[in-house]
UniProtKB/TrEMBL annotation:
It catalyses: GTP + H2O = GDP + phosphate + H(+). Zinc chaperone that directly transfers zinc cofactor to target proteins, thereby activating them. Zinc is transferred from the CXCC motif in the GTPase domain to the zinc binding site in target proteins in a process requiring GTP hydrolysis. Pfam families: cobW, CobW_C. One of its GO terms (molecular function) is hydrolase activity. It comes from the Bacteria. Transmembrane segments: none annotated. The keyword Lyase does not apply. PANTHER family: COBW DOMAIN-CONTAINING PROTEIN (PTHR13748:SF62), COBW-RELATED (PTHR13748). Residues 256-350 form the CobW C-terminal domain. Keywords: Chaperone, Hydrolase, Nucleotide-binding. This is G3E family GTPase. One of its GO terms (cellular component) is cytoplasm.
Length: 351
């Protein structure tokens, strides 16, 4: 059987990966796509945001980052999908893996070369990296994950160009070209892209990766040696930093941590608006990513809330199901955020 092309979709927190994936899943392109979602933290908010029309197989991988702790789960997910396809249970001709915003795409791509079972069924079609034009300059200055994602890409898609000037876009484009001269760069508005620009690119070039990193294929044994727990509160430092291979292995930037707020009481809309407006004013620069599915008092539809730094927005989501237990769940990912202040403040906004 022909190998199944797989797209590794990366991009820093909030870059626009899910928005792009939603577009891809909605377009009438004739591809049957299986999606593997990897999210930080136990709460999978993206699943609420992703549109599903029933034809896609969506496998969630939560509570860990795909480039570190859940890499074994990725192998299990891929081999199980391939088996179900062989058994005629599932039909798909392409896989898209959406990584967390902090993932290093290198080790994810390695899996396709190092694991024999995966290599027997799949090939890497391309690593696609979404770059948030509004926030990328700062992200590239501050987070090595953002640099790696750009550096390892076969294709770069610049999102949120509506939020920056032509000059800012030019400066950013020049910078990412310096980091990665090989990858083609296009812009995307709210995920809008021609399917030929993202699927079946056959853009992955192993030689390029070996040029960036001669140990690309040889690194697996080190992955075991350097195994460590890298979960939602992924704030370990780079104790292996001085080792040559370590940039493969899930060393995430210091002090980035995620926490979850949950409640089974509804929010008062005015109180919540006021609180979130204030908190974003104060902590916005450190709020890398936040999102949630909210139960607002008196509303019969869910409210999907999300943001990146100071840019926050809400959308009306689906209806609460007849038997569905209404609740709130929110995830905040940030640098040194005062969790107790957030949780206390949010509790005060409940009815
Ligand atoms: N202005 C603007 N906003 C955008 C664009 N693309 C995406 N967004 C918004 O950016 C926010 C983050 O988008 P997502 O697609 O959820 O980002 P993500 O990369 O999946 O985020 P994580 O998975 O949490 O890292 C959402 O509020 C989107 O509506 C764009 O082209 N312009």
């Amino acid at each position: 059987m022909a190998l199944i092309p797989t797209t590794i979709l990366t991009g820093f927190l909030g870059a626009g990966k899910t928005t792009l994936l939603n577009r891809i899943l909605q377009e009438p392109h004739g591809f049957k796509i299986a999606v593997i979602e990897n999210e930080f933290g136990q709460e999978n908010i993206d699943n609420e945001i992703l549109v599903q029309d029933g034809t896609e197989q969506i496998v969630e991988m939560n509570n860990g980052c795909i480039c570190c702790t859940v890499r074994g789960d990725l192998i299990v997910a891929l081999t199980a999908l391939a088996q179900r396809r062989r058994d005629g249970e599932l039909q798909f001709d392409h896989v898209v893996i959406e990584t967390t915003g902090l993932a290093n795409p290198g080790p994810v791509a390695q899996t396709f070369f190092i694991d024999e079972e995966v290599a027997a069924d799949y090939l890497v079609d391309a690593i696609i990296t979404v770059v948030d034009a509004k926030h990328a300059m700062h992200q590239l200055d501050t987070y090595e994950e953002a640099q790696r994602q750009v550096g390892f890409a076969d294709k770069l898609l610049l999102s949120k160009t509506d939020l920056v000037s032509a000059d800012e876009l030019k400066v950013l484009t020049e910078r990412i070209k310096r980091i990665n001269p090989r990858a083609a760069i296009s812009t995307i508005a709210f995920g809008q892209v021609a399917i030929a620009d993202v699927l079946d690119l056959r853009g992955f070039n192993l030689n390029d990766k070996l040029e960036i990193d001669p140990d690309f294929i040889a690194a697996e044994e080190h992955a075991h040696n350097h195994d460590h727990t890298c979960d939602a509160a992924c704030d370990h430092d780079g104790e292996h930093e001085h080792h040559h291979h370590d940039h493969h292995h899930g060393h995430h930037s210091d002090n980035i941590a995620a926490f979850v707020f949950k409640s089974d009481r509804p929010f008062n809309t005015e109180k919540l608006d006021e609180f979130l407006g204030g908190i974003v004013q104060v902590f916005g620069p450190r709020m890398l990513r936040y999102k949630g599915v909210l139960w607002m008092d008196g509303a019969d539809r869910k409210v999907v809330f999300q943001g990146v730094h100071q840019i926050m927005g809400t959308d009306i989501g689906g209806k609460w199901g007849e038997d569905e237990i209404r609740s709130n769940k929110m995830v905040f990912i940030g640098q040194n955020l005062p969790k107790e202040t957030f949780i206390y403040g949010l509790e005060q906004c409940l009815v």
